[in-house]
Structure formats: structure tokens, C-alpha cells
Amino acid sequence: MAPPNWQLIGAVIAIVVSIIALALRHLLAEIFPWWMIRKQKNAKLAAPTKSFKGKTILITGANGAFGSRAAKMIADLGVERLILADVRDCTGVKQRIEVETTATNKPDIQVWHVDMMSYQSCREFAKRARALKSLDGVLLVAGILSFKRQESPEGWETSIQVNYLSTALLALLLLPSLKSSPSNPEAPVLTFVTTFGLYPASPFMGAPKSGSYLKHLSNNKDGMMQANQYGRSKGLLLYFTRELASRVSKAQGLQVTVNSADPGAAWTPLTDPNRNMFIPRLIMAISARDVESGAKVLVNAACSTDQSHGGILLDYDLWP
């Protein structure tokens, strides 16, 4: 009996291991791109420096961790008018910005209210925005994260309602109000917030054999479906954003830059309730960074040029 050819066996094992590694990386690229998340976590982002002088910027979710910090940064960069919108009262945020801003000229800060659970509230909010002489940028930061299924007054699961349906509606209603200030030579910017959470949610976004796709996603059960509902709602929003950008670029006389920005993961009042859950805590251990970094990404997106139109900004880079 001939002795085993260890070189050949070793070569075969190496080839098999390489194939498995490549297959695993390809699978993770669609489900959990950990290298992208680690890059984002370890990024050292310089503070945005582009001036907002003369501009009017509107931020929804302005009472949240990302929205409030983005508002402060925009105020420091010389914005003329800053509109803080949330279902909660943003007066405290306004007062902190007025006291802490380093801008030479204090911005005109207005506090507005919008209930993302209500279509009527979205319509009233957009009607108020139509009275603005100019609107240079809208940051649609408002969102919810819920591991327990609940329904909105409109009859939809709350993540689908707030993160997708009402955000999309508000974007469409605000679109005609987006026009640059006289001192702003660039197109106004409409920015949506996206997340890597849509990757692990993608296997749970299959279509039903019949009936409404949105109702299928909304009529979910508690458990894994609800655990991935945030990512599913953001997946829907990303498809909407891409389609909106495509249509806006073809529209006659409507010059608006539409983009998405991923602020990354961070422990905030939105995510804090999940600290005692093993899987969210494990994911955050890999991905979480300081809230300031995420706010920088949003501010950068809000002052982007038309080169970002239809794109996703992962930190300061355009992402496929």
C-alpha cells in the first residue's frame, strides 16, 4: 500500500478551506458585513466644516441623540434658520443650542411638532413648511425601534408606519418646498437615514404568494420578525429613496439632491432598552461607536453636492 501523499492532501484541504472562507464571506456580505461595520466603528471622522450660512435646515427627530447633535453642529456652522421637529417638545434642545453655539450670529431656531403615527399630522406639518421662503435641507432622522409589536392609529405596525410610510409621505409632501436660499448656489438636499440593520433583516423580507406586500410585512408576529422589523422598514425606505432619486432627477424644473446616510450604531435612548438582550448587545459590541460620529455623518450628508444624488453615504464615502 502506497504511503499517503501529504502534500496533495494538504493542498486539497487548503483549497476546500479557501472555498468555504470565500463562500462564508459572500454569505456574510449579504447578511452581516462585519468588516464594513468594524470599519465604521473604528473610523476617526473630522468634524464637518462646510458653512451653512444663509441656509434654512429642517430636522425631524430633533429631540433624539443623533438629531439633536446634528442640529448643534449645523448651528455652529452658521445656519440662518434651524427648524427642530419631533413628536416631543424640542424647546430644551433649542435652549441648549442657543446657549452653547459657537456661531458668531445666533440662528433663528424654531420648534415644530409632527406626529409620525398620523398622516394628518404629516400633512399639516408639510403645509406649514410651504410658507417658508426657502428650504435648503431636510434631515429625516425620526424613527423608532421596537422589539414588541404594536399598531399605529393608521392600522400599521409602528416601525412600518414611522420609519417607512410616514417618512416617505413627509418626503413627498416637503419636496415642493425644497428650494435653495438666494445665497446658496447648490441644490437643496433631502436626506434619509439608513442602517446596516437592513442586511440581517433581508432574509425576512420575502414576498407573500398573494396579497399586499406591505400588509404582509406589517401583519407580523412577535419574535424574529419583530426583532428584524426595524431593518425591514429601513429596507423599504431605501428602495423608496432610490426610486424617488431616480424620478426627481428626471423631473422638469425640480432640482433636489436626494441621498441616504448611515450614522452607524450607537447606544442611545432608542437602543438602550435592548442592553439586556444578548443578540443586540453582541452586535453593538462589534459595531457601536460614539453618537457624535453618527451626527457628523448626517451633517455631512445635509451639505452634500449633487454627486451624492441617489447614493448612500457610509461615513463620508459613497457606498454601493
TrEMBL record:
Indicate yes or no for the key word Iron.
no
Q: Which SUPFAM superfamilies match?
A: NAD(P)-binding Rossmann-fold domains
Top-rank taxon, per record: Eukaryota
Among Pfam families, the record links this protein to: adh_short
Q: Write out the GO MF terms.
A: oxidoreductase activity
Tell me the InterPro entries matching this sequence: NAD(P)-bd_dom_sf, SDR_fam
Q: Which UniProt keywords apply?
A: Membrane, Oxidoreductase, Transmembrane, Transmembrane helix
Is Thylakoid a UniProt keyword of this protein?
Answer: no
What residue ranges are annotated as transmembrane? 6-28
Q: What is this protein called?
A: NAD(P)-binding protein
